[in-house]
From TrEMBL:
Region (Disordered): 24-58, 153-182
Biased composition range(s): Basic and acidic residues: 153-168
Domain Helicase-associated: from-to ranges: 90-148, 245-306
Gene3D superfamilies: 6.10.140.530
Highest rank taxon of the organism: Eukaryota
Endpoints of the signal sequence: none
UniProt protein name: Helicase-associated domain-containing protein
Segments of skewed composition (Low complexity): 41-58
Species this chain originates from: Bathycoccus prasinos
InterPro entries found in the cross-reference section: Helicase_assoc (IPR005114)
DNA sequence: GATATGATTAGATGTCTGGA
DNA sequence: TCCAGACATCTAATCATATC
């Protein structure tokens, strides 16, 4: 593969060098590439190029050639109605995007590390303008030729629509978009929906997307109702379903509310009851890691007891022993406990097993038909059993969900007297500052004493360190 | 062992806002 | 109107663990 270079007029009095890709045969000879007539071109364009017979429609090379031709045509058209300076700026960005695409095997994806952030923003901005139907037809066509609005998958119907009967691409002339009545486009939309199903809104052809986006301005109540009835309300009433950005303060208030309810700020990143809050919390940690979190925000979060380094990372990378753990474990979880957060329970179990080897002890034992109930630790003692629950933050969730039902189910399952020990490993008030290790000693002492005495009633509950 | 589920994270994208 | 900074939102990849 070799590259040829030619000058290309960008705006009056300026030129840009654009690299064109040219293939070579195995024997080293260059493949002849004849001149193509671009779709957006008019008959007066003398520098028109024609697609090589060997190349398939939509190839990377063709899109570049097409983009260049569009750009050239665009220059002429835009110069008539915009200031040279603005045209110049736009052309410069367009050319930069084109160069980027050439250098990156046809991809317009730009990473932050590529040092092309302004170009990425410009591309985003152009896409936004396209969505809002604010681009001139020439600009839209030029950007489209560059693959700026490429959707991931194109429907068969759309693919076929681009071709005439003989299989060649139809020519689309500038300012000559097929004119359709509202009803015709609506029918096309419904057809697309019927063929592709309800879940394909994101794959709508760009033409239908743009048409839909324009419908928010539709005055006709009848048309609006038709769209709403067919599941396109978000386009008619865009604000209703649009993603709304909440401010930092709003999310902080939500976090404070969460903290009040759960005694901690560790909102799971995929917290189902408030997904945006989960994303937001993850973002705060990320920003903190990057060192770009504003000091006042960091302070506010710290004051709320926010943990910037989730324990999972700590467990993964750091040493795992009680000494290291003491005073650091303070995380409970919503719903299913994150496996890494069960480390504390595991430590309690290992410590007890070490001290009470004579007893049959099980950790996180799933109860057959009661699969949803898993006592943290079960110790079987002759004709009765001791169940130890490591109640991080006093299992407030269980209280809400009905602890009585849970105990009843446990009793039904075991069908022998039960002694339930609820152990609180975390400081629950300023008055009780015993750390995890001290509490563990208290628990061991309690188990040592109470394991000698069988329960009198069906179920007895002891609270340790509450 | 295969599959399902969920946590975590980096990176990409979209949105808001203010300044030129 | 355009652009850029800030950051909220989302996606995808990866990993760990539970469950079948």
């Amino acid at each position: 593969m070799t590259f040829s270079c030619r000058s290309f007029p960008v705006a009056e009095g300026r030129s840009k060098k654009i690299f064109l890709r040219r293939s070579k045969n195995d024997d080293g000879s260059t493949i002849k590439r004849s001149v193509v007539t671009p779709r957006c071109n008019n008959s007066n364009n003398k520098r028109s190029v024609k697609r090589s017979s060997s190349s398939k429609g939509g190839s990377f090379e063709n899109s570049i050639v097409f983009s260049l031709a569009c750009l050239e045509e665009l220059t002429k058209v835009e110069m008539k109605r915009d200031t040279p300076k603005l045209i110049d700026l736009w052309m410069e960005k367009y050319t930069e995007a084109l160069e980027w695409k050439l250098a990156n095997e046809g991809s317009l994806t730009i990473k932050k590390t590529d040092d092309k952030v302004p170009l990425a923003r410009w591309i985003t901005y152009q896409r936004k303008l396209a969505r809002e139907d604010k681009l001139t037809p020439e600009k839209y066509e030029a950007l489209n030729a560059l693959g700026m609005f490429d959707v991931k998958r194109r429907s068969k119907g759309e693919e076929n629509n681009d071709r005439s009967n003989d299989g060649t691409k139809k020519k689309k002339k500038q300012n000559q978009r097929p004119k359709q009545s509202w009803e015709q486009t609506f029918e096309e939309l419904i057809l697309f929906k019927e063929i592709n199903g309800d879940g394909t809104k994101n794959q709508l052809p760009i033409k239908l997307k743009r048409w839909l986006n324009a419908q928010k301005n539709t005055k006709s109540m009848e048309k609006r109702q038709l769209l709403i009835d067919n599941g396109f309300e978000e386009y008619v009433n865009p604000k209703k379903n649009a993603r709304r950005r909440a401010s930092w303060d709003t999310r902080f208030t939500e976090l404070r509310q969460f903290q009040r309810e759960h005694d901690h700020c560790n909102v799971p990143a995929t917290y189902r009851l408030n997904r945006p809050l989960g994303y937001w919390v993850a973002t705060q940690r990320k920003t903190h890691r990057n060192g770009t979190l504003k000091p006042e925000r960091e302070q506010a979060l710290t004051n709320l007891g926010f943990e910037f380094e989730p324990l999972k990372t700590w467990y993964r990378n750091g040493p795992r022993n009680v000494d290291e753990l003491a005073g650091k474990v303070s995380v409970s979880w919503m719903g299913r406990a994150a496996p890494a957060y069960e480390e504390k329970q595991k430590l309690v179990f290992e410590s007890l097993r070490e001290n009470f080897r004579e007893f049959d002890m099980r950790f996180n034992h799933r109860l057959g038909r009661l699969g949803s109930i898993k006592p943290d630790i079960v110790i079987e003692v002759n004709n009765w059993a001791m169940i130890i629950e490591v109640d991080e933050f006093q299992h407030k969730k269980y209280e809400r969900d009905g602890e009585d039902d849970r105990l009843e189910q446990l009793r039904d399952y075991f069908n022998i007297p039960l002694k339930v020990v609820r152990f609180n490993p975390d400081p629950c008030s300023m008055k009780d500052e015993r750390d995890f290790e001290e509490r563990l000693e208290v628990l061991k002492e309690h188990v040592r004493n109470s394991i000698e005495v069988a329960p009198i009633r069906d179920v007895e509950i002891d609270y340790v360190c509450f």
